[in-house]
Design brief:
β3 and β4 form a beta hairpin. By secondary structure, the chain is α+β, with helices and mostly antiparallel strands. The longest helix is centred in the middle third of the chain and has 61 residues. Helix content is about 55%, strand content about 10%. It has 21 helices and ten strands. It is elongated. The protein starts with 13 loop residues before the first strand and ends in a 12-residue tail after the last helix. The strands form three sheets. A four-stranded antiparallel sheet has the order 2-5-6-7. The protein folds into three domains: about 350 residues, no CATH class; about 150 residues; about 80 residues, no CATH class. About 35% of the residues are buried. α5 packs antiparallel against α6.
């Protein structure tokens, strides 16, 4: 088996991937049969019939049975399959179920189950009369009626399909753009936002100063007491006056210094970093940092204040953007995430900066809040008076004194001056750090609270807008119905002209993809590939679909005989995905990407093989592979074994 990393008409480039947390497919190993049945029905409604068959069968085996359960089990057995896809054992089990219908109590589910088998009986009888069974189908409640039409799509062929096609087409047209599809699909593929973060306060750096403060303070006290003791001995009255002046000046200087210590460099923008981050050179920027900067430029350019152009606003906020971008890159870099998950925060910061500019509170992030001049002047005057009082006390202490008093007075004033300066410096440093830590803590809490509110607002919006799995599957089914209808019209074919058909759904160019845990991948861009099998050969139609608005482009058509399909090969590569290779006798091999690898996107407790099978089932790949491989092997003789005349061999209800 060969492996290939390229694909015709497909694209490897992925813009975004996301796996939504959900409980709709999660089931405990010890779950009750009722819970397994519920999950199985959910799988069926969401377009994963293979898993639906497993879950509902398990529920039946463990004793949970009834007309409703059997109805959904039959739909799961037949959904996205033709009678040729059923094994002998599956046909036997269907026959057994058809024999149980009469034993169930009369209700809408029993009637729906009876009608389902009546439809199969008409299909398995040559020239069967369809009128009565169609009347029974029309009389069913809408829930059962539309479920039969949808899941027996490939089973219903020929004239019976023709009779029902107008209704199927009309319903698809009515539901195709329902529930605000164009305005909500984007939310399904939006990545899950990462939680709010802010720059925490820097730890205090005053530990050394706080440790040295007691020694300096004690030395200052001892020196001061000695100085004034000597002065009081020499002249008590004059020394008392000098002491009072020194105390007043010292207290004034301490109070003014304390007031000024709380005023230091502060950032202006409430959402900006407290300390500007150094801007990295372009060559040193990593991929995430570069993406963050580009995202800031983008959102600032589209969220401009009134009266300013984008260029003017970008020039005005260059420094702020640089600091904010460095902050966000530093906060989230270690998370190993894409910038898409943090764009909500970048968008909020751009809006916040614009709003603060509009209301006049946008400040320079490097602006300092200066200590008032009056406080500075008063501090200088108080220190000057304190120094003069200390010198006066020294003069009083040495006046008329004999040795060794002048020496002790000199040592006391020298010790008081040095230790006082050292103690005051360390005390102010400790108080500044306390003020800074308190202020940064308040700013951190304010920033984090504002960002958490913005995060919850964005997350709630995504949760409110995100389509359900049933809505996504309904829209996709309607798109496929519309595509098939247009192909039939183009080729002027009716369902009576077809032996069978199959449609392959694959990821399109430059897609985004998302899924719920345990569910199939869904894509923002698809490639639909329809194969119509007639007596004359195969008609193949492919087209790219934008799932958001259901627009189509790059349609391609080709026609070839059954014997022109020389080989079909399916290539699986764990690191790449699934490729389907079609080889025609009169052209080059064509490689079609069916699905990309998804092992790296598995959520906890998910099995890679199981998820792969779910995706292949949801895209119709299993049925298409079997059909094309059979044609490649049998050629023209495939019609003899699979044509309308062989439907009589399919005796489920007989």
């Amino acid at each position: 088996m060969s492996h290939s990393n390229t694909a015709h008409n497909s694209t490897i480039g992925i813009q975004a991937e996301t796996v939504h947390d959900s409980t709709i497919y999660l089931i405990h190993p010890d779950a009750s049969p009722q819970e397994k049945y519920r999950v199985g029905v959910q799988f069926l409604q969401d377009g994963v019939p293979s898993r639906a068959r497993e879950m509902i069968t398990d529920a039946i085996v463990h004793g949970y049975d009834g007309a409703e359960v059997r109805f959904h089990w039959v739909l799961a057995m037949l959904s996205a399959r033709t009678h040729h896809d059923l094994s002998t054992e599956e046909v036997r089990r269907l026959r057994y179920t058809s024999g149980l219908v009469q034993a169930y109590a009369e209700n809408e589910w029993k009637e729906a189950l009876r009608v389902t088998f009546d439809l199969l009986a008409v299909l398995s009888t040559a020239n069967g009369e369809t009128g009565p069974v169609l009347k029974q189908l029309q009389d069913l409640p809408p829930r059962q009626h539309y479920a039969i039409l949808r899941h027996l799509d490939l089973m219903l062929t020929g004239g019976l399909k023709d009779d029902l096609w107008a209704e199927t087409r009309e319903r698809a047209g009515a539901e195709r753009f329902g529930n605000d599809r164009a305005g909500r699909v984007w939310a399904y593929f939006a990545p899950t936002p990462i939680g709010a973060r802010a720059v925490p306060p820097r730890p205090s750096s005053a530990a050394a100063a706080q440790a040295a403060l007691p020694v300096r303070a004690a030395l200052f006290v001892v020196s001061s007491v000695l100085l004034w003791a000597l002065a009081l001995i020499a002249d008590p009255i004059q020394a008392a006056v000098e002491l009072l002046v020194a105390l007043g000046a010292g207290l004034t200087a301490a109070r003014c210094g304390l007031r000024g210590s709380g005023r230091e460099a502060r950032p202006g923008p409430a959402s900006g970093p407290r300390v500007p981050y150094p801007r990295e050179p372009a060559s040193a920027e990593g991929g995430f940092t570069k993406s963050v900067r580009h995202s800031f430029d983008h959102y600032f350019s589209i969220r401009t204040p009134y009266g300013l152009t984008s260029d003017a606003w970008l020039a005005h906020t260059a420094q702020i953007r640089g600091s904010l971008a460095a902050e966000i890159a530093d906060l989230y870099r270690e998370s190993r995430i894409g910038v898409e998950r943090v764009n909500w925060l970048i968008r909020y910061l751009a809006e916040d900066t614009r709003n603060r500019h509009n209301n006049g509170t946008l400040l320079d992030p490097h602006r300092q809040e200066q200590t008032p001049g009056r406080t500075k002047a008063l501090t200088v005057v108080a220190l000057t008076v304190l120094g003069a009082a200390a010198l006066a006390a020294f003069g009083t202490a040495v006046s008329g004194a004999a040795q060794p008093r002048p020496l002790w007075a000199f040592l006391a004033v020298l010790g008081a001056a040095w230790s006082g300066h050292a103690a005051a410096s360390r005390w102010l440093e400790v108080r500044r750090e306390e003020y800074r830590l308190l202020r940064e803590t308040r700013e951190y809490q304010k920033q984090l609270t504002a960002r958490q509110i913005a995060y919850q607002r964005w997350k709630s919006r995504l949760d409110d807008l995100r389509p359900s799995e049933r809505e996504m599957e309904t829209w996709l089914t309607c798109d496929k119905t519309s595509f098939v209808d247009e192909a039939l019209r183009h080729h002027q074919l009716t369902w009576r002209d077809l032996i069978t058909h199959t449609i392959l759904v694959a990821p399109g160019p430059s897609y985004k993809r998302g899924r719920v845990r345990g569910g199939p991948w869904r894509y923002s861009h698809y490639v639909f590939r329809l194969f119509l099998f007639t007596q004359d050969g195969i008609r193949e139609v492919s087209s790219e679909f934008n799932f958001s608005d259901a627009t189509r482009r790059n349609e391609q058509r080709s026609n070839y005989r059954f014997d022109a399909l020389s080989s079909v090969q399916v290539t699986e590569n764990v690191d790449v995905g699934y490729d389907l290779e079609l080889v025609l006798t009169n052209g080059p091999a064509r490689k079609i990407r069916i699905k990309d690898a998804d092992a790296h996107q598995l959520a906890p407790n998910e099995n890679s093989q199981e998820i792969s099978e779910i995706n292949l089932s949801a895209t119709g790949s299993t049925h298409t592979f079997r059909l094309l491989e059979g044609i490649a092997a049998d050629g023209k003789s495939w019609i003899e074994r699979h044509g309308p005349d062989n439907l009589t061999l399919f005796q489920i209800a007989g």
